[in-house]
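Input/output pair, single chain:
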Amino acid sequence: MGAAGAQYYYSGAGGPAASQSALSASSAFAWLNEEGNAALHSETADTWTAGFVFSNLSDHPLLTGFSGSVDWWQVHIRNAIELDSPDFANYQCYGAATVADAAGAAAQAASPACQNVFRNTVTGAQGVATLQYTNAATIGTAGVDLQLNWIARLSDLGLKVPGSIAFNSQDTFVSYYRTKQSPASFDVNVDWKGSMGPTLAGTNPGAYSYRLFSGIAYILPSFSADLRWRFLPSVNTANHAFQQAIIANNNRVAESGQGTMLSYIPNTDIAAPAWSAFDLSASWNVNSVLQIRGGINNLLDKKPDVIFAAAGTPNKGYPVGTNLNAVCSATAAQRGCVNPTAYSLPSNGGSLTYPGYYDTFGRTFFLGFKASF
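Output:
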């Protein structure tokens, strides 16, 4: 998937001076070696934040205990240190320079850039490639953090019940999370929002459109109980986000006539459904010395969601009998869509999930004691 490099050849006297032809998008390296780069320099980031805090909005019992904050943030990193993509490594050898004769082609083949993308001199097949870390990438993200807190005595609310009730919520909303691995047109600008990307080195996966973490508590002078709610919305695979970026790129190229048309085979990745879990905890100050606390995490024993499920035969996707030569419409084919060459079996993703976001342990219990002397 993605852009291809260009292949040099020189036909000798009487033939074309030099030519660059696209390599198949399905070409792959046998191995990808990574190496450092002594010429790296520091990344540069523009970071902007703005927000406000509010509290004591009114003397009314419903509002006096209401407070919170809203924070907008935006981070754009230039000269980001990232590993070159295989396409960019190919381009450095086959596309960054133009040769006019056999001597020029031989000199280019001996250059460090071409030594990094080995080719079998007999078959022409791509072999082991060496990828370097460079300052060619850009990363940008923006969003809003929202925090809300509310507490009130139940008696102030007209209830003849002792104690107080409290609510809190800490939520994040992402506007975008974009990365571009290099300035080259075939390294597309990918917006990972709503997916489990980004996939670039040094970036954290999990660009959910939003995440919610809320809780409600009942509080007495010596006892409190808290019910927390963790919520994650439906999320696509990183592969889906990358393919959508290719489609958007190809549409721009088709409409403007500028840029690089990239090839892709339509995937059948299935978005993971929304996921939530509840946690229950309590704390009791038995006396001035002893405190007991305990709780249940993942109270309802919610299973983790699988991220890498894919449709296929005999579910959705390309059932047996589908004309694989017509999966891409005529318009899509003109814009880089490549028909699949085989049917695919469905995949439930197995156990492929993200423990950093989903609870993989199921229901768990905890109990603790604290003594103060």
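Helices lie at 86-94, 102-109, 112-115, 238-256, 330-334. The longest strand covers residues 126-153.
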